[in-house]
Design a protein that fits this description.
The protein is 43% helix and 25% strand. It contains two helices and six strands, in the order αββββββα. Strands 3-2-1-4-5-6 form a six-stranded antiparallel beta sheet, with no helix packed on it. Strand 2 and strand 3 form a beta hairpin. 17% of the residues are buried.
Length: 161
């Protein structure tokens, strides 16, 4: 019984931490949406602002995009699935920067959030947290019932001999 309670406490602790983490991730998303527009001098700094600027796509793979933004080379990690647009390199794209980092790329057949986008995993944390709270409770409860049934069966069969 003690192991079951410890396991349940573990599931609940991790589940609650993931739910709290999803809330803080949502706060990051709120800060991103509420961020003021960057002045031209702030665009490539860590200042809490965002800007959408024009750029030329200079390289593209399934895991990275490189752009020329006003003579400055900017790279961003991303995840693309399937066939890459063959004519994307050399095309004009719109790049959204937040705190000096590329967070969104649009144009040339692309509309993708980069790996640095603040909204990336908040839903995953929320879903995993709920799964651990509910699924952990069910799992520990079912395990306890099964063990209880076995111990009852063994104790009643050993007493009749």
């Amino acid at each position: 019984m003690r192991r079951a309670l410890l396991a349940l406490a573990g599931f609940w602790t991790v589940g609650v931490l993931m739910l709290v983490g999803s809330r803080y991730g949502s706060s990051g998303l709120d800060r991103f949406h509420d961020a003021p527009t960057c002045s031209p001098a702030q665009t490539f700094t860590a200042t809490d602002c965002r800007a959408t600027v024009g750029a030329t796509l200079t390289a593209l793979t399934n895991s990275q995009a490189t752009m020329d933004v006003d003579g400055r080379r900017v790279s961003a990690g991303l995840t693309l699935h399937g066939q890459l647009p063959g004519d994307a390199v050399g095309q004009t794209v719109r790049v959204t920067l937040y705190r000096g980092t590329v967070v969104h790329l649009e144009g040339a057949g692309l509309n993708v959030d980069t790996d640095d986008t603040p909204v990336d995993h908040t839903g995953d944390f929320r879903l995993a947290g709920l799964f651990l709270l509910i699924g952990g409770t069910i799992l520990v409860g079912a395990g306890t019932l099964i063990r209880s049934g076995r111990s009852t069966r063994y104790s009643s069969s050993s007493g009749t001999g």
